[in-house]
Amino acid sequence: xxxxxxxxxxxxxxxxLVYAKSPLTNDDIxxxxxxxxxxxxxxxxxxxxxxxxxxxxxxxxxxxxxxxFAYKYIxxxxxxxxxxxxxxxxxxIKRLMPEKMVFSYQGDGDLAAIGTxxxxxxxxxxxxxxxxxxxxxxxxxxxxxxxxxxxxxxxTSTTPFGRNVDINGYPLKITDLIAQLPGAAYVTRQSVHTAxxxxxxKKAIRKAFExxxxxxxxxFVEIVATCSSGWKLSPVESNKWMEENMFPHYPLGDLKDxxxxxxxxxxxxxx
Length: 271
Prior knowledge:
Mean pLDDT: 90
Radius of gyration: 19 Å
Order of helices and strands: HHEEHEHHEHHEHEHHE
Strand content: 15-25%
Oligomer: single chain
CATH topology: Rossmann fold
Number of helices: 10
Low-confidence stretches: none
Structural class: alpha/beta
CATH architecture: 3-Layer(aba) Sandwich
CATH class: Alpha Beta
């Protein structure tokens, strides 16, 4: 028994530790469906906030949708918003308390549909906030309906024969639109489907928060995500479908990053 305990202690020694749960994530059991990207992204947010030492300064804003449950899992201050209104609420919080690190956490049906105006105008004003956008091309929580980001031909509960351009229009690449706005300091599109992708996504989220710290304007991070339940696929099949269908339409990488945040070359907005 002594040998077993000694071996366990050796495994969990700091120099041998491979992964540890962030102290910012509480012990609530996550309710997300198997294969859902939300849990991974929220873990990354917690890790970034912890590593930057900004737990007491961070305020997250979540609206309606699967994203709303982020407050259950990350131990920071949260404010709920009406459907689509997270950018407006985040704007108010940041303007009233500019010393806080404020971010919105939104899905595609929220950010790119009912909240389109709030999203575009907040970025166009260059509000000094971080916007985290989960794009799984469907309304996941409310029944799997077509979202603005649903692909052409994609089957949903409201497009049982696939999205038809003549009836439903084209998928909205709102992140591409945001990259054109002068208030956007950093715009990127990432995913969390592999270990390497997770590392890149975490780096992007960290960079977005660093840009807010520099008061440079809006930092926008899209995460191309899966929705196994809404897509009616297994987690493995969902990742494969995402790679084959979503990535060609929503290619990963930086869309706007003309100046590096760590070089101090970003335009610093006057306070």
